[in-house]
Design brief:
four-stranded antiparallel sheet, 124 residues, Peptidase inhibitor family I36 protein, alpha+beta, globular, signal
């Protein structure tokens, strides 16, 4: 009888330990990273990198971000939070913005005509 109780206790301990370890591992992993783009950022990937794997530029702050030497097709991923938006603009300093990408979305775009990105909060 004691042997069965010990086995049952050992099995219960092993089950709880495995559950705790599995939970700890899942929480330690950066679950919100997307294709190498950290949560809260907008990322631009190297030309013709398809699928997006490792960003060449990471933008964290709201406002205008001028681009240089970005030609051809690039992934632009908006991994910001709180429904923040990234606008693609034809001129420097976030002027002549022609399109936007919502949080949690990305586009594979020719950045040749795009000269700046404008990161901004979502306006209602």
């Amino acid at each position: 009888m004691r042997s069965m109780l010990r086995r049952a206790a050992a099995l219960a301990f092993a089950t709880v330990t495995a559950a705790v370890l599995a939970t700890g591992t899942a929480q330690a992993k950066p679950a919100d990273e997307w294709a190498g783009c950290p949560y809260g950022a907008v990322c631009v990937y190297p030309q013709n990198q398809n699928p997006a794997v490792s960003p060449s530029h990471i933008y964290w702050t709201y406002g205008a971000h001028n681009l240089s030497n970005q030609y051809g097709n690039h992934w632009v991923l908006n991994n910001q939070y709180d429904s923040a938006v990234v606008e693609l603009c034809l001129s420097y300093n976030a002027n002549d913005c022609t399109s936007s990408i919502a949080a949690g979305h990305g586009e594979y775009r020719d950045l040749g005509p795009i000269n700046s990105l404008h990161l901004r909060p979502h306006y209602n």
